[in-house]
Design goal:
The protein is α+β, with helices and mostly antiparallel strands. The protein contains 12 helices and 14 strands. The strands form 2 sheets. Strands 1, 2, 3, 4, 5, 8, 9, 10, 11, 12, 13 and 14 form a 12-stranded mixed sheet that branches. Strand 3 and strand 4 form a beta hairpin. It starts with a helix and ends with a helix.
Amino acid sequence: MNFTQSFRLALKSLWTSKIRSLLTMLGIIIGVGAVIIITSLGNGIQTYMNNQFEQMGSNRIIVQTFGRGGSRSVNADDMYALVEKYPQFLSGVTPYTSISASVRHGSTEFSRTSIYGVGETFYNPQKDLTMGGGSLEKGRFLSYLDVERNQNVCVIGSYLEETAFGGDALGKTLTVGGYPFTVVGVLSQMADLSEGSGDDALYLPYTLAKRLGASGYAATYQFTSTGRDTAAAAKGIVENALYKIFQSNDYYFVMTSAEMMDTMDQMVGMVMAILTLIAAISLLVGGIGIMNIMLVSVSERTREIGIRKSLGAKGKHIRSQFIIEAGTTSAIGGIIGILFGILMANVITAVIDVFVAQGSGYSAVPTLGGVLVSFGVSVAIGVVFGYLPANKAARLNPIDALRYE
């Protein structure tokens, strides 16, 4: 009996006992489907995060100082001087200071609003994008004169505009830490317009940070290199300058946005690998189910095996027939699992895009490589777990098999 005949016989056997075949394949279906869903989500998350980093700029360099190294410290002027000294590598810098202060409008207090002191270069007008990934919806962003003259102006998120000003905030005033600030710009919606979300934010000149309770120097700076290809060199320049100041690398931390992307990809990849291994347990259960049903099949077809052997069939022919049947069972289960996984990945994509990613283009699409690997693993599971029953059938004594009732 050749491969084609064995394959047709396997399909006939599966069709004859449809319910039993479906139950046998259930572990394979669930396992393959789960692997497809998890890998699709992982690929979608990595692509989404990389796109977000690319939008914010692949040439960003994040610098964080942890304190003073004895009498040594850095301030914004030191960082601006660094940009002026190396214009071929560094194109700009902005301090980025988090401030703890109360925000009020009238009698309403916004206790969860995130307040940041930044420079004018925090916003890129050519890209209409801030270093935090937001875009400007109304008005303007902070200007050089605002920062230089300590102007009491601010840019707010869409949550503050809707909640405090009813959607009309430009030119209106609110207080930050007891000081009045005029709203000159409003950022577009980034999150879900809820309290404490990315839309509940306020940006003001970093030169006012000390007056509002922040430390005398900015703890964080965001540089931009002249291009993505100069980011590594620009990082080295910043690190060398900070080391000369602190004489130790314990007081600062420097990372490029490309490194941040790589770190996030590694973290997501590790989590997805662990989840995939957990989901693969279902494949093991499915393989045991196939082994069990093939052992039952050998018992049910003992007389058939005896007849075939008495007519000249060799053990290798019997073995290959049962292995092909086991592989066919798992292959069909794998195909169903792949279709189920793709369907669920599309459903989950729609749900995440609407309720989590806010229509920002998240897409969990399975890769061709992932599909092929899943299918190959499902077939391999059937062949491996089907070998024991097939070998048992091949070793049956034809006389005993003919006498079997």
